[in-house]
Input
Amino acid sequence: KNMSKKLPKGFLWGGATADFQYEGGFNESGRGLLSHDYETDGSKEHPRHHTMKMPDGSIIEPKSSFILADSVPTEAEPVFLDDEYYPSHNAVDFYHHYKEDIKLMAGMGFNIFRFSVCWSRIFPTGEEAEPNAAGLKFYDDVINEMAKYNMEPLITICHDEMPMNLALKYNGWTSRKVIDAYVKYAKTLFEHFGNRCKYWLTFNEINAVRGFGPTGVRNSEGQDRYQADHNMFVASAKAVKLGHKLIPGSQFGTMFAMSGAYPATCKPEDMFHYLQEKRENWYFIDIMGRGYYPEYAAELLQRHNVKELHMEPEDAQILKEGQLDYIAFSYYRSNTTKAGDDWFNVGGDSNPYLKETPWGWPVDPLGLRYTMNEVYDRIQKPIFIVENGMGAVDKADENDYVEDDYRIDYLKDHLSAMADAINIDHVPCLGYTMWAPIDLVSLSTGEMKKRYGFVYVDMDDKGHGTLKRTPKKSYNWMKHIIETNGSAL
Ligand code: BG6
Output
């Protein structure tokens, strides 16, 4: 049956970005260094790595944290090497292009824009007593520019990164000191931007970054990893409680990576493995969405060799009171899993029924509708799709124009599936922010040629180019979808 795709009034349409992939300006306005600043570019074949120096001067290059950090010796210090390219430093320079970019987004009719604040731009080491005024001013300017177009912010407080100092000094989120630093940082954001920002995300893809490099943890074995997670749960809940108090009507989520997984076969062993693998994600959503550790946590922690999580007596109450208001997630793809496979939050085996992008990401729009239903059935709180999109090689003509019909197809199919979940299955959904409206640097590979945008940015994998912005074919297509609030899908 061909149901209408028109979405409810007030549906939030927008795009999503992350500071270290988009913003650049790494040595402007007193910004401190963050964990991704030492990450080189890479590709699907050649994983990104960090550059670090041992006390004897020798260089080690641990593989990118996003993939699975190698163990990094505690005495290793990060170092910049002259012959390496570090994409976060300038990214695609939103720092100097924000007016132009916001105008382009407004031109599509966005009423919301999701961006992350760079923690080390506000607290360069994470430990200053006072925030960096110049850093706050940059985001003031961004939010005020958005207001001209009636575009609301959706602020990610922490997107896979932290001030380098906190990572090195405390072994990142394994220390409760980092909870205090985070809450102080969040409070600063609430006090400065709360009058103009209602929607917040405490963390990005918390279930994917868990205890790996982006959380500042060097030896990401089970024990440290799950301790880091617990500390992040407490930090998030404290921020939610504080945000509710300081900003009347504020709405808090955390973003979960929910790219789907299917059992490879109906063999009971594969089904059971699938259940356990799903729990690798539910663990995060249940604790933060329902406010307590589920019973199955004991088995899961034991399986990951976690002897004991350190919890303070007040933590249970904090988790209960700091529950999320809505469940935000990213959805890009789905994969299959079978007995004996490793535990993955994102990734896994491919699915013989699905086509894949050039980066091997299976394309599965119905999986989005499935996931929206599954999450809502379980947590019974509104959904917010805060990342979805297609990384592809775009061929620009001499005027930098790209005919990206493949991206239009991908988005049309995913948005239609989303509309069906809302209109047919009655899943409440606040909005959709597409990753990423303006081309930016890929997180997993550090490439520029893995493009997502409605707008082409003239820059190559090594950062060369004019940075000129040019709308692609999908730009006008999306504009029309938003104009009709989905009817044109
Ligand atoms: C999500 C992240 O994992 O996926 C983003 O929140 C990221 O930061 C996005 O960019 C797409 O992944 P990639 O590796 O193609 O950039």
Q: What stands out?
A: The longest strand covers residues 429-435.
